[in-house]
Each structure stands twice: as C-alpha cells, then as structure tokens.
Amino acid sequence: MVTGWAIDEPLLEQDSLRLRVVLVRHGESGWNGEGRIQGHLGGGLTDRGRDQAATTADFLTRAYRVPDAVLASDLPRVLQTAAPYADRLPGAIALRPDPRLREVDNGTWSGRLIADVASAEADAIERIRGGQDLPRGGGERMAELSARVQSAIADLAAETAQEHPAGERLVVAFSHGGPIRMATVAAVGLPPSGYRAVRGAGNCSVTELEYWVGTDGSVLASRLVSANSAHHLGAGAGAAPTD
C-alpha cells in the first residue's frame, strides 16, 4: 500500500543508494569585508570569519553523524573554514581538497572593488543580468562552473556505488557561493542559467542536497533538503555581497 509519505518519494530501482551532500560556504574573508571580487584569488578569513568557522564546526558535529568524506575547495578562505571541522573528526577522516569546488574564475575582475567593476564594466554586467553567460572578467562562464561542480558530484556518486553498496553515504563539502548555487539548481532540475532562482549563500551557511544513486554509480534523482541555513550563527548572519 502506498502511504502519504512514500507518494512523494521518487520511484527508483529497489537497490538504489542514498548520497547526502552537505555544502558549507566559507566564512567571512578579508576581501568580503572590503567589498572586493574574489573568484580564484583572495586570502584567508577575518577574525569574524574564523569565529563563524568554529561555530559552524560545532554545529555540524552536533547536527550530523561522522561523515564518510570531507571535501573542500583548495583556496585559502575555504581551507581555513574547513579546518576546525576537520580537527573535530576522527583521524581516519582526511580533508580532501578539490579544485573543482573553487569559486567561478572572475578573471581580471578579481581583486577589484565591486563598485569599481560595476562602473567600469557596466555593459558586460548588463548583458549578464539580461541572461547572457559571458566569461566574467575574461574568466569562466557560469555553465563552465556548473560543469566542474557536476563533475565533482558525479565522482561522489560513483564512489558511493563502489564504497557503500548498502545504506547511505554522507559527504560534507566546503565551498563558495557560486558552486553551491550551481549544485542546488542542478539538484532541482534547473539548467545553469537558472541560478538566479536561488539566493546566494551567506558566509558559513549550510545547504543540504540528496541524491539517489544507481548501482552503476549514476545519479537517478536528486532534491534540495535545505538551503542557505545560518541559524546556527545567530542574529546578524547575513550574506556577504561577494564570492
């Protein structure tokens, strides 16, 4: 008999596997505080960002079981955010840097003040806001960002089939606003151009996605569980205006 709960679940092969991916945006960085565009550049966290990272590490250890894997973008602001959480885990769980989780490459815009780019690149920004997927500052297009993020998700799914033939796999991944947005829109079935339908993630916010994985490692279905949650940071935990 189909119950009221089961009717909302996807109809999949009986032995499909479950992959949960918890995505965490980095804490406040120096360039966040200065209002600079980051992309692949930028340094580490501010004092506030380090406090956010420690608070988030405590929250993750309370809210979730010990994960099967922990991934992070290889950029300093993300590695510094991930470190307090990794330090709280058993030694067997090693932090895995993955450059595919980097922010979109903003090319020559990186390091410049948002206000300066908005003025000097007004035509390009208007075209992007109008729906054109231009290379940002001569760097990446959003579709290219989406492709590398989905490549990382596909590898996690394949690992799930290989290493967890029964039950559920939990992965915590520390990243940036852009990759988290692109992973979210893909999980709910939107194309890369649909990223504007998802609000940008705040510093140290938590987004959870769920995937059903076939025995061959392919993603059969996916959904958004929660998005941009920052209640663990308390009042005043707003989104930083840059990446």
From TrEMBL:
GO terms for molecular function: phosphatase activity. InterPro entries: His_Pase_superF_clade-1, His_PPase_superfam, PG/BPGM_mutase_AS, PGM_Phosphatase. Substrate binds at residues 25-32, 77. PROSITE patterns: PG_MUTASE. Keywords: Hydrolase. Transmembrane segments: none annotated. It comes from the Bacteria. GO terms for cellular component: cytoplasm. The keyword Hydrolase applies. It is an enzyme of class 3 (hydrolase). The keyword Transmembrane does not apply. SMART domains: PGAM. It holds the Pfam family His_Phos_1. Its EC number is 3.1.3.3. PANTHER family: BROAD-SPECIFICITY PHOSPHATASE YOR283W-RELATED (PTHR48100), GLUCOSYL-3-PHOSPHOGLYCERATE PHOSPHATASE (PTHR48100:SF62). This is Phosphoserine phosphatase 1. It comes from Occultella aeris.
